[in-house]
Write a structure and sequence with these properties.
Length: 170
C-alpha cells in the first residue's frame, strides 16, 4: 500500500485566517437615549453631571458602540464628551451600531499587518470558519495583500476559488 501524501501541507500556500483577527473583547452598546430628558432632549447640565459621576469602569477593556435609538436631536458635543470618559476605559469605541464597531475592530487589526510578510506569497484567505467574519474584512484584506502577493485564493487549501494572479513581467 502506498503512503498517503498530504499535498496541501507540502504546498507553498500561505493560509490567512481572518477569524484570528477578531478582537476577543466584549461588545456593548451605549445608548445615549437613556440620558435624554423625557426621551426627547439632552439637557447639558444633567448630562455633564452624569458624565462626571457615572462609574465608567464597567467599560474597562470593552468595545463600545455609541448610538441614540430615540428620535431626538443630540448635539455632537455630547458624543464627544462621552468619548472623553470612554477613552480611559474602553478598548475601542465608535459612533454607530455593532456592525460599525466590528468594522473598526477589523480595520484596526488589518492595519497592524505587515504586507511584506506576504511578499510574493500564494495566499489562501480562509473562508467558512466557525465564527462569522463580515464581508468588509475580506475586502479590506485584499487591499492589503494585492500589492505584494503573487496570488490570492479564497476557501480552504484543498478547495479554493482563484481570485487574483499577478501578471507575469514582460
Amino acid at each position: 500500500m502506498e503512503d498517503l501524501i498530504n499535498r496541501v501541507a507540502q504546498s507553498a500556500l500561505t493560509t490567512f485566517n481572518l477569524e484570528e483577527l477578531i478582537h476577543p473583547g466584549e461588545r456593548v452598546v451605549y445608548d445615549i437615549k437613556d440620558n435624554l430628558f423625557h426621551g426627547l432632549i439632552l439637557r447639558e447640565k444633567d448630562f455633564r453631571e452624569f458624565i462626571k459621576t457615572h462609574d465608567w469602569s464597567q467599560f474597562d477593556g470593552k468595545n463600545v458602540a455609541i448610538i441614540c435609538s430615540a428620535d431626538a436631536i443630540v448635539p455632537t458635543w455630547a458624543y464627544m464628551l462621552l468619548a472623553t470618559k470612554l477613552q480611559n476605559h474602553a478598548h475601542r469605541y465608535v459612533f454607530g451600531n455593532l456592525e460599525a464597531l466590528e468594522q473598526e475592530l477589523f480595520h484596526e487589526a488589518i492595519a497592524q499587518i505587515n504586507p511584506e510578510d506576504y511578499r510574493d506569497a500564494k495566499v489562501v484567505v480562509k473562508g467558512c470558519g466557525s465564527v462569522p467574519v463580515p464581508t468588509y474584512a475580506y475586502v479590506a484584506i485584499m487591499q492589503k495583500l494585492l500589492p505584494v502577493v503573487s496570488s490570492v485564493m479564497y476557501g480552504e487549501p484543498c478547495s479554493t476559488v482563484p481570485l487574483y494572479k499577478r501578471p507575469k513581467a514582460q
